[in-house]
Task: structure prediction
Amino acid sequence: MAVYRYPRPASSDITPRRLFFSRRALLGTAVGGVLAGGLRPGMAQADAPVAESARGWPAAETPTPRDDVTHYNNFYEFGMEKSDPAELSGGFHPRPWQVQVDGMVDHPQTWDLDALGARFGHEDRLYRMRCVEAWSMVIPWQGFELGALLRAAGVKAGARYVAFTSVVRPSEMPGQRGGLFSLSWPYVEGLRLDEAMHPLTLLATGVYGEALPAQNGAPIRLVVPWKYGFKGIKSITRITVTDQQPPTSWNRMAPEEYGFYANVNPDVDHPRWSQSSEQVIGEGSLFRTARRPTRLFNGYAEQVAGLYRGMDLRKDF
Amino acid sequence: MAPAPSGRRRSRFSPLTRQIFLYLFGLLPAVLVLAQGMANMLGPNPVSACLHEFGRWAFRFLLISLAVSPLRRFAKLDFMVYRRPLGLLAFTYAALHVVFYAGVARHFDTHVLWKDFTSRPFLTFGLLTFLILLVLALTSTRRAIMALGRRWAKLHKLVYVAMILASVHYTIAFKTWHVEPFIYAALAAGLLALRLVPKQTKRVA
Result:
């Protein structure tokens, strides 16, 4: 069987944990200069050892600083502000955790999280992440291919979609209490089977070399790097193989704004904002954001464009 | 010093001095927000944090400036001398809000901005609000007031329109409905509704 090669950086390109934290010390001494220059420490970091460790990668592919990855999150279960998930997720218990795999599979099974890790392992994947709100990050995930889990479950003939369900725990997730104007719970997502089986599609259990923090979707979440971030359902409890296109949370909320496919596409604007460019989180200064053009399929067209051949991406946005 | 007719102690400062003091005091939030931004205390996206904070302060000062005349009419509290600096503060924060959006976030890219303002309703509402505040700020000088005469009062009724447009702008700016914009809009509606209370003509000839 051919081994799939996804476009990956060498492991030496990912900032080692030790270096990452040593930069914090360096930062402390640099604060004066940062203040004077009006620059954010993120910039100072880019001048520090990262430059060396990120050698060979264009500047835009430098991993977003860990603090930004873990403190700028959309996870409405914990609240609607970007800072809410990090601040309000202290009461969430990601362990013990089970994931139910069922539907049109030969071997329905409820997996313990540790069993999943033991069976499918953890590999590093540095992926671009493009939010539907027109900002982006570059995130070093750890996890395994969703396809591996589905192959182990044995997908039955006639199956066409995979449905995902997230956790409902109002007592631990303040955004699920009340939430008059928010989404309805549980958060649900879905992929077409071929999308789910694609080697780029990841079930992530870690970020930056550590178990996922609650705000990033602990303990296990979906990462589909060529789609807008909201497709990456967090804190997954159930994966169901089906022959019906499953409902998806944001599509239910506003069908004219969020499609089922939600492929990153600079030519199809959100009704209320342009998708042609994106703000790069973790770069830029207080007086000038870092922006770059958005790429079709978030730059993964070479790997995934074939999935959508013959489809009208404006209609199936 | 003789007490003022109202019985309140007369200030030792001239009205103009007091207006300038209030204006400078009102700039403090902007200074604080920018200082926090430069000290990296606004999180991973300090630009949008500043942008949103300036927008909220513009709304707050607009609300306060619209509270001045109802306070005089219904509570007999006269802060009329402060209405102009309050209005100018609303304009100043709105201008900072716009500059952060158009310049800092969008790099003054005219093509992008044109598309934004013509195709994104919440931005259209926001831009119209700003244009009204700009006209009101430009005509807030003594000379403009003298030159416009009666038309000045009519022109400055546009602030009611600005208040409504700003409420819509804030309410529809999010992916989902947020509670805070509705609170601001309710305050705005309340202040505008007070204008509809008929003035009593008690005095009989």
